[in-house]
Amino acid sequence: MPLAVFSTGGACRLGKVFGGSLVDLSVAAPTLPDNVIDFLKAGETARAAYDAVGENGPGRIALADVTLHAPVPNPEKFLAIGMNYGEHAAEARSLGYDTPDFQIWFNKQVSCIAGPYDDVVLPTVSDMVDYEAELAVVIGKTCKDVPVEEARSVIGGYMVANDVSVRDWQKRTPTMTLGKSFDTHGPTGPWLTLDHEIADPHALTLRMLVNGEVMQSDMTGHMIHNIYDQIAYLSQVMTLKPGDILSTGTPSGVGVAKTPPIYRKAGDVMRVEIDGLGHIENKCVAG
Predict the structure, then answer these.
(1) Spatial contact of 166 and 123, defined as CB atoms under 8 Å apart
(2) With 0-12 CB in 10 A as exposed, 13-18 as middle and 19+ as buried, what is 171?
């Protein structure tokens, strides 16, 4: 069952999700850490205590009565890979971007992280805000130089993400970081689905809907560089830490590639769905 970060008007707590309700872990398993990063660091000890929490234990609350927050609000790193689906790479070429020979990574500054149902603020300095539906991987163990065949063993879990992108600012620097890092432009959630609950992370369907209309739809198996290759590649460069977020690329159908381009306006609602992981939904509001 997924691990959620929630509140009911006070401090954030961890909860174990069962359908339309969750169990408050501060009540049902008070020895567990009170945040996702420390939960992941605690490893099998935390997993055993978590697995022992049942649906009808103490601390049960209806999901309708809680506010869900970003599962990992303060990771050390929030990295995203560009042009990682074949059809998206093709539409990027049509916009003048060369298909890279290697994995192309950029930072989303962690200050952009927002909750699964928080508003996304449209900045006053641009009218070129776009969406990107993505599967986010959360690292579960400190690791370096991970072989491809061992990469799954360092994954803590998975989230739904929207790599909100300010297209004109994205082009201002070769790293793309500024256009990817505006405040509120990294909504994630709705919870962390632990790795063992997903049979194959490359067999998931993801969709982006804007105001109810499907704009993107693809399978995670269509990634050019799969999740394990991504972890192996990055870990040659840097030590990955529990809680680090890797956003694994977006499929075709982004607004900038429409004819004419379609950008977000105040009142638009962006909804990202990934089968087996849930959905996030964020309303665009004027800055």
Answers:
(1) yes
(2) middle
CATH number of the domain within which 188 lies: 3.90.850.10
- Count up the domains in the chain and report the number: 2
Domain, as residue range, for 54: 3-68
The model's pLDDT over 163-204, given as tens digits with 9 standing for 90+, comes to 999 999 999 998 999 999 999 999 999 999 999 999 999 999
Tokens of 206: 């993801």
At which residue do the structure tokens 């009142």 appear? 267
CA–CA–CA angle 140, 141, 142 (5° rounding): 135
* Residue 264 forms part of a structural domain: yes
DSSP designation for 186? E
In this structure, what token pair is assigned to residue 276?
């087996």
Q: Is the pLDDT of residue 89 over 70?
A: no
CA distances from 23 to 91, 196, 269 (A): 44, 20, 29
| 240 DSSP assignment | B
For residue 60, is pLDDT > 80?
A: yes
Q: Write out the two tokens for 73.
A: 């609000």
